[in-house]
């Protein structure tokens, strides 16, 4: 597989980033300390390069109806300027990807799949578009995505937005988006800014053409220099999203899992009119219920559970860990795991086989961490 690089790769090298492969992309894992980056996002702000994510434009008179058919949610009900989390599944209900769709106008959506699934989702949407008056365009290779996340994110972004548009930022609700003028160096860019993120904190994701990505990155770093903003890599992004109980495709979500097992049943709009891909299978899965469900686990010791570690009850394997870290914010180990449905009640005590030594974990409600409203 040919390695892929974002438009900000050289900027990351200059900042001393260490890199890792993620979905075929060379992405910054961390710049100095992943713990410091994690804590900065929780207390001030972190700046992320998310340009490996996909962007697929869906436009035309049937755009809303088409996405109702192609995805499990009711996208036609989303108002312009708002966004919705949804899933694209196979006909048998397996999860191809989880994604966010922004309704930019009555007949225009931007669908954002995960990095390794961008081409797959774009091709699948194009195949499902037959019979609908829509155009599906994969613009992933020409679009960068920069995110500023943390309690200081709004104030930092406002440094780059003209005062006449401050209300567009401060009044933007969670899972909403708008086009805003952003000053980047000597240029003013009109960019799509969304109040979304994957960290459990307030923050914004900004879509920018590749040619302008470096200028935007530098402008945000400068704007946040006195507010504690630091660049942040994938390592802390993973610990942040795990504290927030957010699933990661390839870990919690795969073709072998379905929305009900993953705790995403409310995302499936079985009440919407008409057929959609996976409806029959998902109706059946909801009726029977999953054999295993995704749960949160809180460790009682200091050792962390890791992906693929067996979950035990009375010495018998009843599940498997999908993600686990020592929580920097909470001070104890946390994990997500699929366990047999009989053992999913909060308060249930289970063991995780930590390389031959059982360690006690407790089933707890998700998310592990929820930010205070400010």
Task: Please provide the ordered H/E string of secondary-structure elements.
Answer: EHEEHEEHEEEHEEHHEEEHEHHEEEEEE
The CATH class of the domain at 4-53 and 142-242 turns out to be Alpha Beta
Q: Determine the number of helices (DSSP H or I, runs of at least 4 residues).
A: 9
Tell me what portion of residues adopts beta-strand conformation.
25-35%
The oligomeric state is single chain
Rg over CA atoms? 21 Å
Report the CATH architecture of the domain at 4-53 and 142-242.
2-Layer Sandwich
Q: Major sheet, described briefly? A: 6 strands, mixed
Distance between the termini: 45 Å
The helix fraction, in percent, is 10-25%
Question: Mean pLDDT, rounded to whole units?
Answer: 97
The CATH topology assignment of the domain at 4-53 and 142-242 is Gyrase A, domain 2
List segments where confidence is low: pLDDT < 50 over at least 5 consecutive residues. Answer: none
Principal-axis shape: globular
| CATH homology-level superfamily of the domain at 4-53 and 142-242 | Probable tRNA modification gtpase trme, domain 1
Biggest sheet: strand arrangement: 11-12-13-10-4-14
Which structural class should the secondary elements be placed in? alpha+beta
Number of strands: 20
């Amino acid at each position: 597989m040919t390695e892929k690089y974002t438009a900000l790769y050289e900027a990351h090298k200059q900042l001393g980033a260490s890199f890792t492969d993620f979905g075929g992309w060379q992405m910054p894992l961390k710049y100095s300390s992943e713990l410091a980056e994690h804590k900065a996002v929780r207390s001030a702000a972190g700046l992320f390069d998310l340009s490996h994510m996909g962007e697929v434009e869906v436009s035309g008179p049937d755009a809303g109806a088409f996405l109702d058919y192609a995805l499990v949610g009711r996208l036609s009900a989303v108002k312009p300027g708002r966004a919705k989390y949804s899933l694209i599944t196979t006909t048998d209900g397996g999860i191809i990807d989880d994604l966010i769709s922004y309704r930019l106008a009555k007949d225009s959506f931007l669908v954002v799949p995960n990095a390794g699934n961008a081409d797959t989702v774009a091709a699948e949407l194009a195949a499902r578009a037959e019979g609908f008056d829509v155009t599906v365009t994969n613009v992933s290779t020409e679009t960068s995505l920069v995110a500023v996340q943390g309690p200081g994110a709004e104030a930092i972004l406002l440094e780059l937005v003209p005062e006449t548009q401050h209300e567009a930022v401060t009044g933007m609700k969670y899972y909403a988006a708008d086009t805003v003028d952003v000053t980047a160096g000597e240029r003013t860019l009109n960019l799509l800014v969304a109040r979304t993120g994957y960290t459990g904190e307030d923050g914004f994701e900004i879509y920018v053409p590749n040619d302008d990505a470096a200028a935007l990155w530098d402008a945000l770093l400068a704007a946040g220099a006195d507010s504690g903003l630091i660049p942040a890599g994938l390592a802390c992004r993973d610990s942040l999203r795990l504290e927030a109980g957010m699933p990661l495709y390839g870990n919690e979500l795969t073709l072998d899992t379905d929305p009900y097992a993953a705790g995403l049943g409310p995302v499936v709009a079985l009440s919407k009119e008409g057929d959609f891909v996976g409806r029959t299978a998902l109706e059946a899965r909801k009726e029977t219920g999953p054999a295993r469900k995704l749960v949160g686990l809180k460790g009682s010791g200091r050792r962390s559970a890791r992906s693929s570690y067996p979950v035990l009850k009375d010495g018998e394997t009843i599940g498997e860990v999908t993600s686990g870290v020592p929580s920097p914010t909470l001070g104890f180990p946390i994990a997500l795991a699929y366990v047999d449905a009989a053992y999913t009640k909060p308060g249930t005590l289970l063991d995780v086989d930590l390389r031959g030594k059982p360690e006690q974990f407790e089933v707890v409600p998700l998310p592990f961490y929820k930010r205070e409203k400010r």
